[in-house]
Structures are given as structure tokens and as C-alpha cells.
Amino acid sequence: SFLHCRPVMKIAFVSFTCARDANLVPLWAAAVLRLAPDALLVCAVDKADAAMALPRKCLRVVTTFDRRGNLNGIPAVQGILCTLAAVGEELGADVVVKMDCDTVLTGASWLRWLEEVDFLGFEGGAPLTATGICYAIRTAAARLLADAVQPWRWGTTGKFPEDQTIFSLALLHTRATLV
Q1: Are the C-beta atoms of 162 and 130 separated by less than 8 Å?
Q2: Which of 4, 88, 145, 148 is least crowded, fewest Cβ atoms below 10 Å from its Cβ?
Q3: Kindly report the CA angle at 144 between 140 and 150, in degrees rounded to 5?
Q4: What is the pLDDT along the chain (179 residues), one digit of tens a residue?
């Protein structure tokens, strides 16, 4: 598989989870590890569920940002980006994959093109579609976007779904650097 033959790119998989997903986390971890035995697994657990049980191979990060249900709003977007950046920096990962624990990763070939780009990729390989269930972002890009998303600048009202907002920010940044 792709992840076995190219050990140069270090990848961390992060699932933002809570107690209602507790039965899915072990299945998610096992599925990722079957595909990528050397993968770094991180569960970003909501502060309300900080004590939930996790599989042995999963590192725990407790998040304190307002998730507004299903990761909506600027505080959630900033919290996700900060978490992805911190995880990538702490673990030395080139790329961080945000993946819902109820999602099955059937292959990793879509990550291959991230070796040649600087920013963001989505499961399915189409770089111009956004899907919150699974996307990959370079650690440096996550930090850059996290620093750009300031609630005082964006406000804290409005839906701002995390996947669409992060994707839009990545596109805006990419276009700004190309001009």
C-alpha cells in the first residue's frame, strides 16, 4: 500500500469524538491501522467526555472549544485547525488527516498527491470538493489557517460548517499566493 512504501511522509489521523461515538472509535482505529500499521492515531475528545475509554493505540487530546453540535461555527473551525496543527507539530507529522470515526477509509492513494502539494486534500481525490468526513492537511497549512481564523475578525455567529469553511480558507490562501 501507499503508506507502506513511502515512509518519508509521516501521517497522523485525528478523529474529533465524544461519548456518543465511543463504540465506533475502536472500529475506526482498527480500520486505519489495517491500512496503515504505522499510523499515528489521535482522538480529540470533547472536554465533557474527557474520561471516555479509548483504544490502546490512540493518543488522547482534550478539546475545549465550542463544537456547536457537529463542529460548526468559527470557534469550532479555529479549534479544529489549532488541534490539527498542534497534533502535527507535536508528533512531527507532515500531514494530518481529519477523519470521522464513523467513516471507513478504503484506500490511501488519494494521499499520494499531497507529497507534491503544499496544502489540502480530500478523500475521493477531487481537490475541488469539500467533505467533512475525511480530509488531509499539511501541518504547516493547518497552523497558517489556524492563525488566520480569529473570532474577533469573523464573528462568532453564523453556521460556518468546518469542512466548507476550512476548504474555503485553503482556496482563498492558495489563490492569494498565486496572484
Answers
A1: no
A2: 4
A3: 150
A4: 444 444 467 889 999 998 899 999 999 999 999 888 888 999 999 999 988 899 999 999 999 888 877 787 888 889 999 999 999 999 999 889 999 888 877 777 766 666 666 555 544 444 444 456 788 888 988 998 888 887 666 666 678 888 888 888 877 776 555 44
Nearest to 66 by CA among 46, 51, 44: 46
Structure letter (DSSP) for residue 65: S
The H-or-E segment that residue 60 falls in is strand 58-63
User: What are the angstrom distances between the C-alpha of 155 and each of 51, 101, 173?
Assistant: 31, 29, 19
- Alpha-carbon span 4 to 7, nearest angstrom: 6
Q: Are 85 and 143 in contact (CB under 8 A)?
A: yes
Axis-axis angle for helices 162-178, 74-91 (nearest 10)? 70
DSSP annotation of 99 = E
C-alpha cell at 133: 468526513
